[in-house]
């Protein structure tokens, strides 16, 4: 396991559980350096002091808060650590809520394992972990860390406590204006969509991999060995194209999902959306009786005179 990032205690009523906080995930993304394109020299970011116009070291850099345009207030790390907060050295549990009530958009993506710190902490740690495992609730707690107070969600995984950092209420934007307005969807289309959801439901997502990272690593490996990078596959079809009937597309999607699972779903057809009929030309008006007589008279051949 990685080294602890924070040490303190979980505060659960009158129970205190000494714990250590360590990262639960690792970033496997491929990293790039900034280089000068002409000679591949590394491009460095240097920090200069505006007042003295010189480069400063990390030991000379501190924190400052801008009170006004021309006024800065210096704040030290010691002052931040000594703020009178009950959560400065404790993960204070403030409530227990149903797990389904937590909107996933509030999850910031930062997750941490909580390890009990010392033999004395083992029993109360196991107590809260097993209590959480027996119901559908999760703990919501506060934690002051890295210069700010955070809201965290505590849950159990394989007997260990995990903390997920949550966004505060005022950090989540309102998406209501993004919802489609006055869009008609039939009950049969919803039923077909539910069937598609059921056919694609699984209890395990461990088999998914980062295909972009694998492709990028193949490109970098080829370039490092002086080979040409692999070419993209031409088999994949471009998205878009024909506009199909929504219901038929759902039915075809269900058939393919069931076929991928080895289920026989029968044949399904995808029909193109019917094209709008071409605009009809306006019908010619029937000529009135007088005009029709004149036209008929004009078309009659002239009679021959006798003796001509």
Structure explained in plain terms:
The protein has 308 residues and is α+β, with helices and mostly antiparallel strands. It is 23% helix and 25% strand. It has six helices and eleven strands. It has helices at residues 77-81, 122-133, 187-199, 211-224, 246-260, 289-299; strands at 6-12, 15-23, 48-49, 54-55, 63-68, 71-75, 90-98, 107-116, 137-145, 148-157, 160-166. A seven-stranded mixed β-barrel has the order 1-2-8-11-10-9-7. Strands 3-4 form a two-stranded antiparallel sheet. A hairpin with a 2-residue loop joins strand 1 and strand 2 (15-23). Helix 3 (187-199) packs parallel to helix 5 (246-260). The longest helix has 15 residues, at 246-260.
The low-confidence parts are 289-308
| Discrete helix count | 6
Radius of gyration: 36 Å
| Biggest β-sheet description | 7 strands, mixed, barrel
First-last Cα distance? 125 Å
Largest beta sheet: what is the strand line-up? 1-2-8-11-10-9-7
> β content, as a range?
15-25%
**How many β-strand runs?**
11
Give helix % range.
Answer: 10-25%
Q: Per the principal axes of the C-alpha atoms, what is the gross shape?
A: extended
Mean pLDDT: 81
In short:
The chain has 308 residues and is of the alpha+beta class.
List the helices and strands and how they pair.
Blueprint: E1 6-12, E2 15-23, E3 48-49, E4 54-55, E5 63-68, E6 71-75, H1 77-81, E7 90-98, E8 107-116, H2 122-133, E9 137-145, E10 148-157, E11 160-166, H3 187-199, H4 211-224, H5 246-260, H6 289-299
Parallel strand pairs: 1-7
Antiparallel strand pairs: 1-2, 2-8, 3-4, 5-6, 7-9, 8-11, 9-10, 10-11
Helix pairs in contact: 3-5
């Amino acid at each position: 396991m990685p080294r602890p990032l924070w040490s303190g205690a979980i505060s659960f009523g009158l129970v205190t559980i000494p714990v250590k906080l360590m990262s639960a995930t690792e970033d496997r993304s491929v990293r790039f350096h900034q280089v000068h394109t002409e000679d591949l020299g590394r491009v460095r970011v240097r920090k200069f002091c505006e007042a003295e116009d010189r480069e400063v070291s990390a030991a000379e850099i501190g924190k400052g808060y801008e009170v006004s345009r021309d006024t800065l207030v210096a704040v030290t790390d010691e002052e931040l650590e000594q703020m009178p907060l009950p959560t400065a050295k404790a993960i204070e549990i403030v409530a227990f809520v149903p797990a389904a009530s937590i909107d996933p958009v509030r999850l910031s993506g930062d997750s941490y394992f909580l390890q009990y710190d010392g033999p004395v902490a083992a029993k109360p740690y196991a107590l809260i972990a097993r209590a959480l495992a027996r119901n559908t609730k999760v703990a919501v707690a506060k934690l002051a860390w890295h210069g700010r107070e955070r809201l965290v969600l505590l849950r159990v995984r394989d007997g260990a406590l995990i903390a997920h950092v949550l966004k505060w209420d005022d950090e989540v934007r309102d998406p209501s204006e993004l919802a489609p307005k006055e869009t008609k969807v039939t009950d049969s289309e919803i039923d077909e969509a539910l069937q598609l959801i059921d056919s694609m439901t699984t209890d395990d997502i461990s088999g998914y991999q980062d295909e972009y990272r694998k492709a990028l690593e193949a490109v970098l490996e080829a370039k490092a060995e002086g080979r040409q990078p692999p070419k993209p596959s031409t088999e994949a079809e471009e998205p878009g194209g024909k506009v199909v009937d929504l219901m038929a597309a759902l039915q075809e999607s269900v058939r393919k999902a069931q076929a991928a699972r080895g289920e026989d779903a029968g044949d399904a057809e995808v029909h193109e959306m019917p094209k709008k009929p071409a605009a009809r030309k306006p019908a010619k008006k029937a000529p009135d009786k007088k005009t029709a007589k004149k036209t008929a008279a004009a078309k009659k051949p002239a009679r021959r005179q006798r003796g001509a």
